[in-house]
From TrEMBL:
Higher taxonomy: Bacteria, Bacillati, Actinomycetota, Actinomycetes, Micrococcales
Primary gene name: recF
Function, as annotated: The RecF protein is involved in DNA metabolism; it is required for DNA replication and normal SOS inducibility. RecF binds preferentially to single-stranded, linear DNA. It also seems to bind ATP.
Biological process per Gene Ontology, one example term: DNA synthesis involved in DNA repair
Protein known as: DNA replication and repair protein RecF
Cell compartment(s), UniProt: Cytoplasm
Transmembrane segments: none
Amino-acid positions noted as binding ATP in the UniProt annotation, renumbered to this chain: G30, R31, N32, G33, Q34, G35, K36, T37
Length: 387
């Protein structure tokens, strides 16, 4: 899969922009703040329905405009597909595929993108939400239907939490809150599917993660990936032990554990007005040499783990062979790496169908990834030609 052409209107600092890209390496060069990352962000949106920099869509709409438009022509061998996303400052976004309206959640069916950026260091060093987001965005690309499941879960969670807050304000006891059981049923049904999908994902990531880490770091530090689950009774904010996967032997066992966890925490939930059990509370546990990466790994090791998560994601998508190779984007990454890691990373990604690299200094990009260069200045494409 490749992006052949990208068109932006009122997206970030671009009033309008058109960029032609080619198979193999593409380097986007420009000083900081000129709009390089905005191009990467726009391409990534089709695959993840979000930004790697902000949690809301509104900041992607150019100041003074009510909507941004992102259009991309994707090539899969001899096949061409035109994708369009309309990001509204307020209200629901809209999407089109080959000119026909579709639900926005349909876009990841057509686009697979793996984007690595300096912000990814938060996956290994930040709070659990960053790790959940990483896993869920990869899930949506591998199983696009799960975008709807995740969205429905979030809506049910908000409704259930609102009910708990209302009950706390009114001083109601658990036995007086019969409608909570209805929301429990919905939460368990959707949450069970998410929990099982995440577990399958981590099992499949384990091998590629080890291979990617050794390729990047040149060392075998036994990287491991597991979940700490609130459904199994753990508190991810306090516990650093992986949950025994046997607890989730099948959907019925997982649903039963989820329901039991909700019942065990019900009094606490009423006291605090929050939902304390479910995949929204779980954490992805990353370890090197048996120790959690967060709090124990060095800066270089943390970078290597973050890179390895993205590279192993790309390998999973490639192995799936649904749309060919995913598009690999390296956003302002090489400036953060030493010469050895730069060379190793270039060697790992060089054979993907299309690699898009952004850099403030072209010399930071290893020679094997310098083929086509696009130059950006103040939201304007000033050079769009082979060099």
């Amino acid at each position: 899969m490749i992006v052949e052409h990208l068109s932006l209107v009122d997206f970030r600092n671009y009033a309008a922009a058109d960029v032609t890209l080619v198979p193999g390496p593409n380097v986007v060069v420009g000083r900081n703040g000129q709009g390089k990352t905005n191009l990467a962000e726009a391409i990534g949106y089709f695959a993840t329905l979000g930004s790697h920099r902000v949690s809301q869509d509104a900041p992607m709409v150019r100041f003074g405009s009510e909507a941004a438009f992102v259009r991309a022509r994707l090539g899969y061998g001899d096949r061409r597909i035109q994708l369009e996303a309309q990001l509204n400052r307020s209200g629901s976004n809209k999407a089109r595929v080959n000119g026909s309206p579709v639900r926005t959640s349909e876009l990841p069916r057509y686009a697979q993108v793996v984007l690595f950026a300096p912000e990814d260091l938060q996956i290994v060093r930040g709070d659990p939400s960053a790790r959940r987001r990483f896993a869920d965005q990869l899930l949506m690309q591998r199983v696009p239907r799960l975008a709807g499941v995740l969205g429905d879960y979030d809506r049910v969670l908000k409704q259930r939490t609102a009910l708990l807050k209302s009950a706390r304000a009114r001083g109601l006891r658990a036995e007086q809150l019969t409608t909570l059981d209805v929301w429990d049923d919905k939460l368990v049904s959707l949450g069970t599917e998410i929990v099982l999908a995440r577990l399958r994902l981590t099992e499949e990531l384990a091998g590629p993660l080890r291979a990617a880490y050794e390729a990047i770091a040149g060392a075998d530090h036994d990287p491991q990936i597991d979940w700490v689950s609130s459904i199994a009774g753990a508190d991810p904010e306090e516990d650093a032990a992986a949950t025994d996967a046997a607890v989730f032997s099948d959907p019925d066992a997982t649903a039963a554990a989820f329901r039991a966890g909700l019942m065990a925490k019900r009094s606490q939930e009423l006291e605090r007005g929050v939902t304390l059990v479910g995949p929204h509370r779980d954490d992805l546990l990353l370890r090197l040499r048996g120790l959690p990466v967060k709090g124990y790994a060095s800066h270089g090791e943390s970078w290597s783990v973050a890179l390895s998560l993205r590279l192993s994601s790309a390998q999973l998508l490639r192995d799936q062979l649904r749309l060919g190779d995913p598009i690999v984007i390296l956003d302002d990454v090489f400036a953060e790496l030493d010469a050895d890691r730069r060379s190793r990373l270039a060697g790992v990604v060089a054979d993907f169908e299309q690699v898009i690299v952004t850099a403030a200094v072209e010399g930071d990009v290893p020679e094997p990834l310098r083929a086509r260069t696009v130059r950006v200045e103040a939201g304007t494409i000033v050079t769009d030609a082979d060099e």
